[in-house]
Amino acid sequence: MSTELMLQKLRKGDYFCALEWLSGFTSAATSQDELLPRAIYELISHDFQQSDVDYIQMLNAIDKMAVNFPSVPGKYFNANMTLFSAALICLVYLDHNLKEFYRNKPEQISISEWMHRDNEKPGNEIIKEEIGRKMALFEEQIPSCYEKLTALQSNIVQANTFKTICDEYHQRLRMTRYCNPESEHYQSARLGVLAALCDQLSAQIMFTETYQSVLEDYVEQIRQLKPDFWEESYLRQLQQTPTTWLQNLSFFTQSQFARMLAVPGGLPQSRSDPGLSCRSYDKV
Q1: pLDDT in tens, 194-247
Q2: CA 6/CA 64 separation, integer angstroms
């Protein structure tokens, strides 16, 4: 995923899709000392702006409330903290007009060396202090993210519900036996479409417009393949607007959210790697 596309996803609120960005330049041999400077360089070399601060605040809030997203794989929270750290540092660089200082790296110099250069004005010590102050400000503003966090949790539940429906439908169709070649032919075709749909949905964390479009396209394909009468119930469920059954689900309430923020240590522990903490910038 390109940095431009990642920023588009981030600005649309498709946070977990945006976090796939880091996998594009991560390998088993990539250390955090290499990954964070690379992420900073990518952001500052592209269209990252100070107006993106609201989306960056959400990354921090997602990390702090990670226990409320148990179905989300831990790799996303590691990536989340790296992206948040990189973006936080970029915001400070932009505040001090350092964008040009860190852009346009010469080919013969590694990204890590380039990003670790000392800047004469305002100086690395002042930059570290600014990062700490901005981090404290982000922590104070977590309560303002309640509605967005609740909507995010809702979208994850929606996505998981559709995955469950699709899996159940595929399992039941696979176990169904037909007595004539034509029915078996269409059953096999529907199974192929359903298997492809299950694969598509398994890669999605949130219910988004893209997610809904995928559902609609695959359901239409299945309807063209002579589904049996009992399959109509599954097809309707895959096409429904999920607002009704979401009303019966229990998310963290605003009062619970406020209590967690008010009590020292009340916030859940981050699921990201402690090594990715953005409270320490000894090498920036």
Answers
A1: 999 999 888 888 888 778 888 999 999 999 999 999 999 999 999 886 554 444
A2: 22
Higher pLDDT, 32 or 240: 240
For the cut 90, the answer to whether the pLDDT of residue 191 exceeds it is yes
- Rounded Cα gap, residues 206 and 218, in angstroms: 18
Cα 8 to Cα 144: distance, rounded to the nearest angstrom: 23
Cβ neighbours for 242, distance < 8 A, ≥ 6 positions apart: 158, 161, 162, 207
CB atoms within 10 A of CB 141: 14
Judge contact between 127 and 284, C-beta under 8 A. Answer: yes
Q: What is the pLDDT of residue 276?
A: 38
In the 8-state DSSP scheme, what is residue 273? Answer: -
- Whether a cis peptide bond, with omega within 30° of 0, leads into 227 is no
Please report the pLDDT score of residue 225 as a whole number: 94
Q: What is the DSSP string of 186-223?
A: HHHHHHHHHHHHHHHHHT--S--HHHHHHHHHHHHHHH
Is the pLDDT score of 175 beyond 90?
A: yes
The CA angle 157-246-60, to the nearest 5 degrees, is 45
Q: Which residues touch 249 (CB under 8 Å, ≥6 apart)?
A: 154, 157
DSSP type of residue 226:
-
- Quickly list DSSP for 54-91: HHHHHHHHHHHTGGG-TTS-HHHHHHHHHHHHHHHHHH
Domain boundaries, the chain: 3-143+267-276, 148-246
Helix (H) or strand (E) holding 135: helix 124-140
Q: Are 39 and 82 in contact (CB under 8 A)?
A: yes
